[in-house]
Design a protein that fits this description.
mainly alpha, 2 strands, about 60% helix, rod-shaped, two-stranded antiparallel ribbon, 6 helices, binds zinc ion
Length: about 160
Amino acid sequence: MAVPTTFEVVHNCGHAITHDLASRSADQRAGYARWLAARKCTDCWRADHHADAASTKEWLAQKRAEEEAAATDWETQFDMPPLEGPETILSWGARSRHQLVTRAYTELVTEGTWDEADWAQLEEQIRRVTRAGWWVDQRDAEGADLPELLDAASDRDRPTENPFR
Ligand SMILES: [Zn+2]
């Protein structure tokens, strides 16, 4: 009986593909078939690699667009001033501001002890900080820390009082 030249290989993606291994020497075919079985079939491999690069990029772009739309809606609804700074970080700043303020509202009002009047005061402070870079810098901050962060920001912007006046 001759060693077969075609092998039905069940790849680890689940697809069964008949491979023509005639080009391999008879004593290498079984080993090669096992090697193939531990891998995905060519179609799945290609699809994965194509998907990896393209879909990650697409997914990120899609996520950014959604976050940006949410930030813009929020800015309109709550009358937030546009941010200032280099063009390249304006959108990032806007997304960071919206996300941090949303976290703050959840932690301080929804789950915390603040009432709407407390929040309205904080919102005034939020409106005063329009530097996109500042919001980008605070992007990983805890929502509950926002009041302290805003206090620090407004202290710095306040003109220094002249003690000799
Ligand atoms: Zn497959």
